[in-house]
Amino acid sequence: MTEGVWFDEIDSTNAEARRRAEGGETGPLWLAARRQTAGRGRRGRAWESDTGNLFATLLTTTRRPAGEAAQASFLAALAVAELLDAFAAEGAVTIKWPNDVLLAGRKASGILLESGGRADGGLWLAVGIGVNLAHAPEGTERPATALARHLRPDIAYPPPPEIALELLAERFAAWSERWDRYGFEPVLDAWRRRAPGLDGPCVARLSTETLSGVADGVEPDGSLRLRLPDGSLKLISAGDVF
Ligand code: BTN
Q: CB of 14 closer than 6 A to ligand 1?
């Protein structure tokens, strides 16, 4: 079982992972907080982080090249989907490329991968995961929801963050082991089964630009094939949307 540290309050578990990585810590180590005062989302956005939801980052070290290491976000999405599946109404959980986990079509989780080089040539990786267990932020660009609104009829409350992290860490470790042993293909197969709409209108928000087109499936490495209005095909790697 991977080690874990809980904070009552912290700026950001991803920021803490970076500080520790830069201080030489290798992990694997889960850093989790009941509340974040400066939670970070993708594209420099803030991530609302009030008590009741899950905020956790896995700090780990890898010898994989950065492009391949980015595939960890697919493992994280699968682990979150499995966590939510254990409590949510049947059929509610889906994944949107590459790693947004949705409940009834609304965003219920966010994943932020950060990485950096180590002195020994390896790479540290921070897999930051936020899951809306109890409440969802209002007024976000994309409609959000929380597990509390989609529970199975026999479940009264969403799990507390501590229990949610146990399940999440266990599922992430299982996918990680499969990735190490059998490669990315079985991971992507499982991910595909949970990701409808890989062949329809799509807006890809990259760090540098926003592209509109029609999605045309995913490549074996997890990149999205996007058909642009001029007919050309653009491959967007999962790493580009961080
Ligand atoms: C997104 O914008 O979709 C990604 C959000 C990621 C939020 C999580 S919460 C735990 C970890 N710590 C952070 O500051 N961000 C990530």
A: yes
Ligand 1 close to Cβ of residue 172 (< 6 A): no
Full-model pTM: 0.94
Q: What is the DSSP string of 48-82?
A: ---BTBEEEEEEEEE-S-HHHHTTHHHHHHHHHHH
ipTM over 0.95: yes
Paired with 51 in beta bridges are: 53
Among 102, 101, 105, 123, smallest CA distance to 114 is for 123
Half-sphere exposure of 95 (CA within 13 A, CB side): 25
Q: Closest by alpha carbon to 196, among 72, 75, 93, 79?
A: 93
- Looking up tokens 């700090």 gives 59
Residue 12 beta carbon below 6 angstroms from any ligand 1 atom: yes
**What tokens were used for 234?**
């653009």
